[in-house]
Design goal:
The protein is an all-alpha fold. The chain contains nine helices and no strands. Helix 3 packs antiparallel against helix 7 (about 170-190) and helix 4 packs across helix 6. The longest helix is centred in the N-terminal third of the chain and has 31 residues, at about 15-45. The radius of gyration is 19 Å and the shape is globular. It is found in: Membrane. It is a multi-pass membrane protein. It holds the Pfam family MIP.
């Protein structure tokens, strides 16, 4: 009980509040650029949904925007910008559950506000909602989103690992690159979300929650597996060896 109380107190300190605000701002900026790029593609090319050039443009926008968003918040909140990344970090014990919940709230608020601003400022443009093709099952889409989120969270773990040195600028770039590559790989199938906050914001403002579970279950499972594998199997913490027996 004392441990729970201390964790709750830790989650409302000034430093923690700064972290939540940083997550809100970074998620807002990322979603604004990501969704805005998709809306701009549809405005310039009515058939953008099926165009390869549009897919490349959206992937590049996602890569650049996420790299910047992570870099901006890295030294304050860790630069999660994604509830799945936060969940993966919580599974690995790098963030407490109460703080993770506040991170999720900040991330989803940032996403909703970004989509709302795009909706109101463009007036006639519809906010694009993540969806899957009719021939694809929700189970298959969840697997696809889970594998991509695994790659994302695994990259986040590797980039933020102090044993590899300071994150610097290369960490956010690596995170952005893996997201851009995944968008290229999955855009026509699931939209390449990997981010429950992004999917939630577009669905809420876009007015459709169809297949929303795909964009939560898949990424959360993928993030959890990435956190467990990285910290416990592939790159576990080194245990010091004692010099004498029984010491």
């Amino acid at each position: 009980m004392a441990s729970l109380k201390s964790r709750l107190e830790h989650s409302v300190t000034p430093i923690a509040l700064r972290a939540y605000f940083a997550e809100y701002i970074s998620t807002f900026l990322f979603v604004y650029a990501s969704v805005g790029a998709a809306m701009a593609s549809r405005k310039m090319m009515p058939d953008a949904a099926s165009g390869s050039s549009s897919l490349v443009a959206i992937a590049v926008a996602n890569a650049f925007a996420l790299s910047v968003a992570v870099y901006l918040a890295a030294n304050i909140s860790g630069g999660h910008v994604n509830p799945a990344v936060t969940f993966g970090m919580a599974i690995g014990g790098h963030i407490t559950i109460p703080m993770a919940i506040f991170y999720w709230i900040a991330q989803m608020l940032g996403s909703v506000m970004a989509c709302l601003l795009l909706k109101t400022s463009t007036v006639t443009q519809q906010v694009p909602v993540h969806a899957i093709p009719h021939e694809m099952t929700g189970f298959g889409a969840a697997i696809l989103e889970g594998v991509m989120t695994f790659a994302l969270v695994y990259t986040v773990y590797a980039s933020a690992d102090p044993r590899r040195g300071a994150m610097g600028a290369i960490g956010p770039l690596a995170i952005g690159f893996i997201v851009g590559a995944n968008v290229l790989a999955s855009g026509p199938f699931t939209g390449g979300s990997m981010n429950p906050a992004l999917s939630f914001g577009t669905s809420l403002i876009g007015g459709s929650f169809k297949n929303q579970a795909v964009y939560w279950i898949g990424p959360m499972i993928g993030a959890a597996v990435a956190g467990i594998l990285y910290d416990n199997v592939v790159f576990p913490a080194e245990v010091p060896i004692s010099d004498g027996i029984g010491v």
